[in-house]
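User: Second chain of the day. Same drill as before.
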Amino acid sequence: MNQLFGKLLSLFGGGPGPILTPDQFTQEVATAFRKKRPQVALEIVKELEIKFGDHFTSFLNNAYDLYRHNPTAKKQIVGDVLATGLEVIDRSGQQVNRKRIVPVIKDNGWLEEGRKAMAERGRGEFPVPVHEAYNPELILCYAEDSARGIRYLQDKDLEEIGLAREELRELAIANLKELLTDVRCQGGEGLYMMTADGTYESSLILFEDLWTDGRLDLRGEIVVAIPARNLLFVTGTGNTEALARLQEVLAESEQEEMPYRLTSTLFVYRGGKFEIL
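Assistant: Same format as last time:
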């Protein structure tokens, strides 16, 4: 495995110092929120689950995984959780901004996992976000992006702004292109990593021009791997050595409790979209 991807995977290897337990991490988030908004009711439902007022329930599993793998970033991670909660509270009742609607790639099991988690917690029905199938392994969800985080859209959000489903995908992709102004390709030896903003890398598979304008010097058909929401690796079907290294990266990522995990499946670009290889 080349040095670039070794360094990348090492980011998920943790850091020095004692690690907070899930309960301690939950308490720390709650304490930080109470300092920010003492007037807003807060309830710790259970470890890694906090209810902010009547507006928002935050499940901290991904945040805790991020912290556990990089303890030195705890302040930033807690801050991001608070920012998301405050965003929902502050924008309660406001309409969605059409210009901030973006596409988010999820694996096919994500919806069922959400339903199961809500049922296990006794939280009622899972609020299914607006989504559509992309291929048999992936779905395309729609969310509103903001400086504080993302909020998945419901059907009522589209009704409020008069946005038809038929318009949604084209609008969301155009918006994301406006947001991602620094898409880069890093790596070498036939194996590359696409980077953008650290959140929407997997959604780059929707940028048709990225895969058809000839900027990628690859042998054979384009192959991608998206093990997590913010990771996108690229190689070609004609480069067997690079494909083997990519499979090695995916195998190692499978052993990690990676935040925002997607899939270890490889996809090949054919007919204007990525299909299962």
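The mean pLDDT is 84.

User: Great, on to the next one.
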